[in-house]
Specification:
Structural class: mainly alpha
Distance between the termini: 33 Å
Largest sheet: 3 strands, antiparallel
Radius of gyration: 28 Å
Number of helices: 11
Helix content: 55-70%
């Protein structure tokens, strides 16, 4: 609700605003005795953000005698700007709460999938890859990118999304990734050459890059989790009180009955990447001053250093708990490797979104959208 009240000619004076009744629409203005005339325009904004109490924003703006009720529609930029800033701060707080809640829920669910391994883990990766491929080809067909190139046909984008989802499954079945990538690229090239009209190289390059970026790179998660099946001999979790759960749970879902190097490495990788993102957000929000790159202006060097520190700390702590890697240098190097991959992967996504002219590539997970927070993301 927004209201404007015109007063008689009087100088600036203190204003007390009270609400005698519980209704937020019932307002009382306590004015002093009449004073020499000065024409003022009074602007009152009453807002109620979701699940928060009402907030009042008010201002007196002097105007010339010729101004009257005819210009009451003129906006007060200062008042409205302050209201917008307050709303942005409240939205950031709401996004942070959503980020924490959904992050915990997804973390618990993903932890069970990672521990299960095998086909359960592979199918989950394939579903995530399919969603990512659809978003990628949607960005390629957006106005920002399509204005400077010819995007691949819609049917080919759908076929490539399905091929990307099949790559992790083929990786688990064959044990390697070379056959799926080369075969997929050959099929895409034939489809583009045989289509009606004039095939363009931009169509081929964007489609093949989508196969590589969404499908091929994701297969490394399957190779890491399911390919490194050697037992983690130094891991002592199986000897603790949770030994029954730790051994029976993977077997029920098709996994192995012992902790493997792939399982330990996957858990440390996912945890350190989440820590890097969280520490980078908090560090960038608190200390972010120096822009990291022009690709994503909201990312800062301070946030990147905080994310690197958090990633190394979590990797070292989990290596002590899971007893892999056995040395401090190896654990630190593993954390640096995870942070480097996550950082440059995020920058590649930011570059694609910037060319596409969009802010967020997807909203599947509430609170987890890129470029939504100052300082880092």
């Amino acid at each position: 609700m927004a209201a404007r009240l015109y007063l008689g000619r009087c100088p600036l004076f203190p204003l007390s605003l009270s609400s005698p009744s519980p209704s937020p629409k019932s307002l009382t203005l306590a004015l002093p005795r009449p004073l020499p005339p000065i024409h003022l325009r009074f602007h009152l904004v009453l807002r109620r953000p979701r699940r928060l109490p009402f907030r009042f924003t008010a201002a007196f703006v002097p105007s010339s005698a010729a101004d009257g009720p005819a210009d009451h529609e003129l906006p007060l930029k200062d008042v409205e700007a302050s209201a917008v800033i307050d709303q942005q701060r409240q939205n950031q707080g709401s996004q942070l709460r959503k980020r924490v809640i959904f992050g915990l829920g997804i973390g618990l669910g993903a932890g069970g999938v990672v521990v299960a391994g095998g086909w359960v883990f592979t199918v989950a990766v394939a579903a995530a890859v399919f969603a990512a491929a659809r978003e990628y080809f949607g960005l390629v067909r957006s106005r920002g990118i399509a204005a400077g190139m010819t995007p691949p046909p819609r049917y080919l984008s759908r076929v490539c999304s399905v091929i990307c989802a099949l790559m992790p499954v083929l990786t688990l079945y064959f044990g390697h990734m070379d056959v799926s990538v080369t075969s997929s690229a050959f099929v895409v090239a034939m489809a583009l050459i045989l289509q009606r009209g004039n095939p363009r190289f931009a169509q081929l390059s964007s489609a093949v890059f989508g196969l590589f970026y969404c499908g091929y790179l994701s297969c490394f998660w399957v190779k890491l989790r399911c390919g490194l099946s050697a037992p983690a001999l130094n891991t002592n979790i199986g000897r603790s009180t949770l030994s029954e759960i730790g051994n029976v749970w993977p077997v029920l879902l098709g996994g192995q009955a012992h902790w493997t190097v792939g399982l330990v490495a996957t858990l440390i990788s996912i945890s350190s990447i989440i820590a890097a993102d969280t520490f980078a957000f908090l560090g960038g929000r608190a200390f972010g001053r120096t822009p990291l790159t022009n690709i994503s202006p909201k990312k800062t060097l301070e946030g990147a250093l905080a994310g690197l520190s958090g990633c190394i700390v979590i990797a070292v702590l989990l290596s002590k708990i899971l007893c892999w890697p056995t040395s401090l240098i190896s654990a630190s190097a593993f954390g640096i490797l995870n942070f480097t991959g996550s950082l440059f992967g995020d920058l590649v996504e930011s570059m694609i979104k910037r060319d596409a002219g969009v802010k967020d590539s997807g909203s599947l997970i509430p609170g987890h959208v890129s470029d939504a927070y100052p300082g880092w993301i």
